[in-house]
Design brief:
Blueprint: E1 14-17, E2 20-23, E3 26-27, H1 28-35, E4 39-43, H2 44-62, E5 66-71, H3 78-86, E6 90-93, H4 96-104, E7 112-114, H5 121-129, E8 134-137, H6 140-153, E9 157-164, E10 186-187, H7 192-202, E11 206-212, H8 222-243, E12 249-251, H9 269-286, E13 293-296, H10 300-303, E14 307-318, E15 324-328, H11 337-341, E16 347-349, E17 359-364, E18 373-380, E19 389-393, E20 413-418, E21 421-426, H12 431-435
Parallel strand pairs: 4-20, 5-6, 5-13, 6-7, 7-8, 8-9, 9-10, 9-11, 11-12, 12-13, 15-17
Antiparallel strand pairs: 1-2, 2-3, 4-14, 14-15, 14-19, 16-19, 17-18, 20-21
Helix pairs in contact: 2-9, 5-6, 8-9
The structure holds ligand LLP.
Residues 71, 74, 92, 115, 175, 214, 217-218, 253-256, 297-301, 337, 341, 398 line the site of ligand LLP.
Amino acid sequence: MEDNKNIDLIIKKLNIKSNELYFSDFKLNDLANKYGTPLYIVDEELIREKCRLFKKAIKDSLKNNGNILYASKALSAKFIYEIIKDEDLGIDVVSTGEIWTAKFSNFDMSNAFFHSNNKTDFDIQFAINNKIGYFVVDSEEELFLIDKFAKEKNIKQNIFIRITPGIDPHTYEKVATGKVDSKFGFSIETGLAEDIIKKALELKNINLIGFHCHVGSQVFDTQVFFDTIDVMVKFIKFIFEKYHFLVAGLNMGGGFAVRYVKSDKQINIYENVFKICEYIKKKFNENSLEMPQIYFEPGRSIVADSSITIYTVGSVKKIPNYKNYISVDGGMGDNIRYALYGAKYTYLPISNVLDEFDETYDIVGRFCESGDELQRNVKLPSNIKRGDRIACLTTGAYQYSMASNYNRVGKPMMIMISNGKIREVIKRETLDDIIRLDV
Ligand code: LLP
């Protein structure tokens, strides 16, 4: 590797040879020439590595009393469920579309947790018919409907109840879910949580397994998890003493932060999860409560830094005394996270990587609105021009899964690097795909 001390190679398997950027030993310019751009590139081994770190951490701390569920909203596609199944993780699904995709990859649905704050009658029946393992109940209406449909099938449906512990996760507002006024869950503070538990315990076709709490996403501070555990264990004890119901499962949700830019802290997944598990054990022990099965539901931290996206520059517009724009052939259609959250990313040129980054640009997309920005104030070489390619790092989570067909632009393809070989895992949408649903 050459001297690249000024370059933010913040993800693994990214390196520079002869002034060219490589990912997993593939020269990115070659991949762009072969497959076109925009192009999502995933490294399989990096995904598997994360799955194993999570699993090892809970195993080392909790032995067999826990499991990891991959929150598949972060990236849902056939190939990912196959990897997750192979790594022996469960999944979190939030729609019939995710359930259907998981089934398409022969995922065992008894290992799936079905979320969503508004499941339709169809969703509930579909999930029951497909033998979903657990519902994570998020409304009273849902609870009674599950009971009704389970009765029709003559089964007792396993459920968790989503609890809002009243914790501020210190992340951006659109992904914070643990506060009392959240649309998700039943809050402890208002008594709604106790009320729904009481109702669930009375229903004949409902088997209440335990509680779920997810306080937010992109959480850097482990203390947030400790605070959540304090609240949850206190509540579990309260419910046990009052109703003689002891949880058999506690699902802590996901939310582990990922490093997108150099200034972000790098979270050590193993240490972090191990510490949280140890803390859970300690708290249950202190309260003389038997340990339930513990689940974590990471999405972002499993897939985000396994991937990059590459784009081709279409124009460079320099507005004297104002700003410089680079327009690329993707944008908010394949990555809406900057437009929606102001999410930060690292961008690099994929050729001439060692040239000086002596100009500042706003990187914008090809879509017809000013809000179609990918990142402001990015330092790149001043000689960048049409036809050059740039890479956006850490794009495995919530890019493809939030992609749209705005302006009737097709979604990019995704390729996966596995053991030195490339596999197309999601095809590029064609013009025929674009008109497929028009009648
Ligand atoms: N469990 C539940 C119940 C969730 O709602 C979520 C994320 C997760 C687990 C996984 O959280 P993670 O480990 O990925 O942070 N579109 C946003 C993120 C929305 C997260 C929604 N729920 C983004 O692009 O930042």
